[in-house]
Amino acid sequence: MSLSLQSFRPYETEEKGLSGLCESYLGLPLDKRDQMSDWDKRPLSEDQISYAALDALVLLEIFEAMKKRAEAEGVQVRFDDMASALIRNKNKVK
Q1: Please, what is the angle between helix 46-72 and helix 79-93, to 10°?
Q2: How does DSSP classify residue 68?
Q3: Looking at residues 84-89, what average pLDDT do you find?
Q4: Does residue 34 contact residue 48 with C-beta atoms inside 8 Å?
Q5: Which long-range contacts (CB under 8 A, 24 or more apart) does 22-28 make?
Q6: What's the structural domain count of the chain?
Q7: Model-level pTM?
């Protein structure tokens, strides 16, 4: 069985966005308090730097969890193709 990007949904959660994915796949939502902070102001605060680094880290953890879920469900997922499709779609929007 193969899987498309559209059919690979996270588990149900009240949270949306990256925090919802984090809750779905890793068990806890992200603390989004710094999301609305002033990101134009320089230098960034230590809290903002930690916030951004945590977002990047959990993306890697979610990716691994998604691969494990797909394998456990016997689903063949071509994540490289999915990533390429996302990049192509993003470039079309510009």
Answers
A1: 130
A2: H
A3: 75
A4: yes
A5: 22/58, 22/62, 25/61, 25/62, 25/65, 25/66, 25/69, 26/58, 26/61, 26/62, 26/65
A6: 1
A7: 0.67
pLDDT score for 79: 72
Joined together, the tokens standing for residue 31 give 């603390």
d(CA 33, CA 45): 13
Letter for the amino acid at 5? L
- Is a pLDDT exceeding 60 seen at residue 42? yes
Can you list the pairs that 28-33 forms with residues at least 24 positions away whose Cβ atoms lie under 8 Å? 30/54, 30/55, 30/58
What span, in angstroms and rounded, lies between the C-alpha atoms of 12 and 62? 15
CATH of the domain at 73: 3.30.420.10
Query: Using 50, 70 and 90 to split pLDDT, how confident is the model at 49?
Result: very high
Structural domain of 67: 17-93
Closest CA to 34 of 21, 23, 18: 18
Tell me the angle at which helices 46-72 and 17-26 cross, rounded to the nearest 10 degrees. 50
